[in-house]
Every structure is written in structure tokens, then in C-alpha cells.
Amino acid sequence: MADPEQLDAIRIRREALYQAVVGLEDALTTPVGDGAKWRLRVAMAVDHAAARIEDHARETEAKDGFLDRVVAEAPRLQRRVDQMKVDHERLEKEVDALRIAVSIVADDEIGDEAPTIRNRAIELLGQMTRHRQRGADLIYEAYQVDIGGTA
């Protein structure tokens, strides 16, 4: 049985990841115009997403954290928990690569590089969304609790 406080903490982490997705998507869809401003806006959104991904992975993978509790209560879900950990590693690598891609482009090259950066970021957004979906499915499988849509 899921502890209500644990579920509240999960909802907060999910909301933080969702807000990072929204912020990055918003930054990416603004017109490039002034390349330096666009790059700064995207870089800030990428940094925010990186911090949320790192916090999420650290908290859910902590000793006696959410993923440990799922396995303790429902050992049949070990494979899905392992997949969540793989997702965390992949998300951290992708967001780091995106951070580097944004940082190395010169301001006068942003116009040419924006499509590449956007495509890479859109892939990251998709991975984050799929991870959130797998997390919601895992919670439901473990506790028969629907923790909701966006949060």
C-alpha cells in the first residue's frame, strides 16, 4: 500500500519534470531572432531540465526511496524498475549533450544551428514524456493508484 506522503512526493517530482518539459518546449518554440537571447533562454531551460532530471533520479533511486519500495512491495516489477533507472541515465546523458550543444554554438551561428538544437531537444522532451508515462504506469501497477495527468 502506498503511503500518502510518498505519493505526494511523487506528484511533486512529476510536476517538476512536467514544468521542465513545458519550459524547454516554450524556449525552443520562440523565434531565434536575436541569437544570443534565444541561446540564453534555451540554455536556461536546459539547465532547469537538467536539475529536475538529476533531482528526480537521485530521489527516486535513493536507498529506501520510491524504486526500492516498489521492488520490496512488488518484486514482480523489478524489470520495470530497472528500466526506470536506465531511463534516468539516458535522460542525464541526453540533457548533458544538449547543454554542450547549446553552449558551443557561437551567437552568430545560432540561426543555422537552431534546427539541430531544436531537434535534439525535441527528442529529449519525448524521452522525458515517455519516462513520466512509464512512471505513472509503474505506480499504478504497484499500488493501483492513478496519480493523474500533468502532475
Shape verdict: elongated
Give the low-confidence spans: none
Rg, please? 17 Å
CATH topology: Four Helix Bundle (Hemerythrin (Met), subunit A)
Main structural class: mainly alpha
Can you summarize the main beta sheet?
Answer: none
Question: How much is the average pLDDT?
Answer: 91
Helix content: over 70%
Strand percentage lies at: under 5%
**Sequence of secondary-structure elements:** HHHHH
The CATH architecture: Up-down Bundle
What number of structural domains do the residues give?
1
CATH top level class name: Mainly Alpha
* Number of strand segments: 0
Q: Alpha-carbon distance between the termini?
A: 21 Å
Count of helix runs = 5
Could you provide a short overview of the structure?
The chain is mainly α. It is built from 5 helices and no strands. Helix 1 (4-28) packs antiparallel against helix 5.
Describe the structure.
The protein is mainly alpha-helical. The chain has a single domain, classed as Up-down Bundle (Four Helix Bundle (Hemerythrin (Met), subunit A)). The chain has helices at residues 4-28, 35-61, 66-73, 78-104, 110-143. Helix 2 (35-61) packs antiparallel against helix 4 (78-104) and helix 4 (78-104) runs antiparallel to helix 5 (110-143). The longest helix has 34 residues, at 110-143. The protein starts with a helix and ends in an 8-residue tail after the last helix. The mean pLDDT is 91.
